[in-house]
Amino acid sequence: MLILLPVCRNLLSFLRGTCSCCRRTLRKQLDHNLAFHKLVAYALALFTAVHTIAHLFNLERYNRSQQATDGSLAAAVSKLHLRGTKWLNPIHSNQTTPEYVAFTTIPGLTGIIITLALILMVTSSTEFIRRSYFEVFCGLVRGQTEESMEEAPPQHCAQYLTDEDCGHHCCKEPEFGSIPAESWKWVLAPVLLYIFERILRIWRARQKVVVTKVVMHPSRVLELQMQKKGFHMEVGQYIFVNCPTVSLLEWHPFTLTSAPEEDFFSIHIRVAGDWTESVIDTFQQQKPEMPRIEVDGPFGTASEDVFQYEVAMLVGAGIGVTPFASILKSIWYKFQQADQALKTKKIYFYWLCRDTGAFAWFNDLLASLEQKMAESGKADFLTYRLFLTGWDTSIANNAALNFDTATDAVTGLRHKTIFGRPMWNTEFAAVASAHPRSVVGVFLCGPEALAKSLQKSCHQHSSLDPRKVQFYFNKENF
């Protein structure tokens, strides 16, 4: 099951990315499964711990049965080794302890090694470790054979086992044998599926990727525009990226910021660790030969469903705005093509940033959309609000002095930047009031604390009457 978990997650993501025609309920269930895989992993770890403890208790029962003198069935069968080479209880001495068996036998040692490996896997998969240190049974179980059980049933013949001058038919010594190993039946399918999944990913990653354009945005945000034969994407999807020049083994997920209608696909990379910093430095060196990039994907996310809702609330925090860049671009292309299948009538876009520099690389797209939608008579289609969560008095004073200007002093856009965090109850109440009979999709790419707050607001502001406003929460899962 532990082997199967990462395979299932990748297959679910791949399925999520390819089943664009699936019903909304099925796609939401896939999103739920993607988020649930962590809980399953921890549950498996817990069950494994219980399983290991149970083995230790069994060893203790073996030990007590060996030392017992009460004439019970367990005590009787534990003394069989005294009459020859046949045995059922692996502990043959009163001085043997469960700890001795655990650390001196092959099954015991292998069990300890596997358990330690599991502990390492579980602990190293926690979010703290992943973010801080990214780089960083064989014949023991025996049983009475079926033929022997027919000739000497253990419950009826236990009292005769220690009788040396026995004339009863039960006096025939029971035959014991190792229970055949069957663990391969459970391991084979996950291993084969894992091998298939790895071969598929290696094949996809080895396909040639051409970097057509490199753009360095403010705040050290690197944009890579690429092309790959046979690459097809939907809005909000993500890919795994590897740069062999920086590291042969590290693959990192990035949300696609291009629209499906464009003849290239793009990602934006912000400094978030050693690997991202090295990639940005490598492309900034402007060598004659472009560094090689390998791509695996795309994989599906909940953001693909944005066009399935009449009203959409898009919430991005910091670099989490990237999936919504793809969505906003795609909307403009759909307007240009007069796409009659577009179900969405209104989009509310919220972007939360800690510093003013983070707004800069996305301003051009918002300004362009703002102008083009106004020219085409769609100015009311997109309402966006930018929140600056980290600021000082000088920034606030400058904004206050330029409050009456046509454009914002921080971003240069028509909508003014709001200082502080959103009041989500107010925002949701306003949307519910403006669209009293709509189904509203709430999409987030951001931290877990913000996700909990938005999910709570969705429940609070959804009407009990299914004919009235309903909020559905969707969150990125990687």
Put simply, the count of helices is 15
Approximately what portion of the residues adopt beta-strand conformation?
15-25%
CATH superfamily of the largest domain: Nucleotide-binding domain of ferredoxin-NADP reductase (FNR) module
* Average pLDDT for all residues: 76
Task: Supply the number of structural domains.
Answer: 3
Q: Based on the coordinates given, report the CATH architecture of the largest domain.
A: 3-Layer(aba) Sandwich
What spatial order of strands do you see in the largest sheet? Answer: 12-11-10-9-13-14
Quaternary structure: single chain
CATH fold-level label of the largest domain: Rossmann fold
Give the strand tally. 14
Radius of gyration, Cα only, in angstroms? 32 Å
Q: What about the largest sheet? A: 6 strands, parallel
Structural class: alpha/beta
- Which regions contain 5 or more consecutive residues with pLDDT less than 50? none
**What is the helix content?**
40-55%
The shape is elongated
Order of helices and strands: HHHHHHEHHEHEEEEEHEEHEHEHEHEHE
CATH class of the largest domain: Alpha Beta
Features:
Elongation Factor Tu (Ef-tu), domain 3, 3-stranded antiparallel β-sheet, single chain, 6-stranded parallel β-sheet, 478 residues, 15 helices, alpha/beta, Rossmann fold, 3 domains, 44% helix
Task: Give the gist of this structure.
This protein has 15 helices and 14 strands. The chain is of the alpha/beta class.
Structure characterization notes:
This protein is an alpha/beta fold and about 475 residues long. It folds into 3 domains: about 5-140 and about 180-185, no CATH class; about 210-300, Translation factors (Elongation Factor Tu (Ef-tu), domain 3, Beta Barrel); about 300-475, Rossmann fold (3-Layer(aba) Sandwich). About 45% of the residues lie in helices and about 15% in strands. Strands 12-11-10-9-13-14 form a 6-stranded parallel β-sheet, with helices on both faces. A 3-stranded antiparallel β-sheet has the order 3-4-7, with helices on one face. Strands 6-5-8 form a 3-stranded antiparallel β-sheet. The radius of gyration is 32 Å and the shape is elongated. The chain starts with a helix and ends with a strand. The relative contact order is 0.09. The mean pLDDT is about 75.
